[in-house]
Amino acid sequence: MKKILITGADGQLGFELQRSLPAGFECLATDKDALDITDAQAVNTYVDEHKPDVIINAAAYTAVDKAEEETELAIAINTTGAKNLAQAAKDKAIKLVQISTDFVFDGKACSPYTVDAITDPDGYYGKTKRDGDNLVVDILGDEALIIRTSWLYSSHGNNFVKTMLRFMLEREELGIIADQIGTPTWANSLANAVWKSIELDTTGFHHWSDAGVASWYDFAYAIMEEGVSLGLLDKEITINPITTADYPTPASRPCYSVLDKTVTWKALGLKSDHWRVALRKMMKELKAK
Questions:
Q1: Catalytic pick from 61, 125, 153, 256?
Q2: Count of CB atoms situated within 10 Å of the CB of 71
């Protein structure tokens, strides 16, 4: 029975990893109260006591706008935390799966970012994640595994899908950004890719998101259509496309952050569902709840 340590277990990916745990694995699910990854001694003590075979670092500071002010906290979790886990993994010969983000890229591309594309994040969230990834590679070398993903959502926790459904029940009209392009990703899809990566002992940089591309406007419109179809919404409302300039935020977002999954699909022998297919599956779960 292999032991899997999951950090950030109370998050969307942590939830999906736990419910899709393969046979033959014991799950050590930790949140920030159970394991403070910013504390190197706490990490070493936990690893020494529980002796996991694999660590999945799904913990992250993801408040993109707040990271512009709470920089030290973002660094502590996204950069120092990743470093502490990587060092413990190296010292104890444990496999580490580091979960990363499309925000490590500059968002100025016009074609999907490959796994070896240059990282040049604009905001502090992306910078702290990029720096954490780099430290993992510095410490673990060729044994490092970093999986970047994008626009994550789940039936668990807070996310764009659930926020849109709430707004669509409360309002008659919404303005949604149409000039930021990426790919929505069901956290269940990512969890399955993580488990396959562990099974195959994959290493290096990899990308996983669902298939296809969308703007936030496209994503919101699809949520409305699926919501009405499933009876989660009683009617369609007006959704207006707006620009990034119409909705300024403290942190800038990538205008284009589509990830090229070719390398990962080949390595894992898996392909993602189209994001609309995945969205429908997740929203059926919401209805069942």
A1: 125
A2: 15
Residue closest to 93 by CA, chosen among 134, 163, 141? 141
Contact 88, 94 (CB under 8 A): yes
CATH homologous superfamily of domain 2-153+185-211+257-272?
A: NAD(P)-binding Rossmann-like Domain (3.40.50.720)
- Triad 44, 46, 47: Cα angle to 5°: 65
For this structure, is 125 an active site residue?
yes
Cα angle 186-19-184, degrees, rounded to a multiple of 5: 5
User: Per the confidence metrics, is the pTM higher than 0.90?
Assistant: yes
What secondary structure, in 3-state letters, does 71-117 show? HHHHHHHHHHHHHHHHHHHHHCCCEEEEEEEHHHCCCCCCCCECCCC
Question: pLDDT tens, 213-251?
Answer: 999 999 999 999 999 999 999 999 999 999 999 999 999
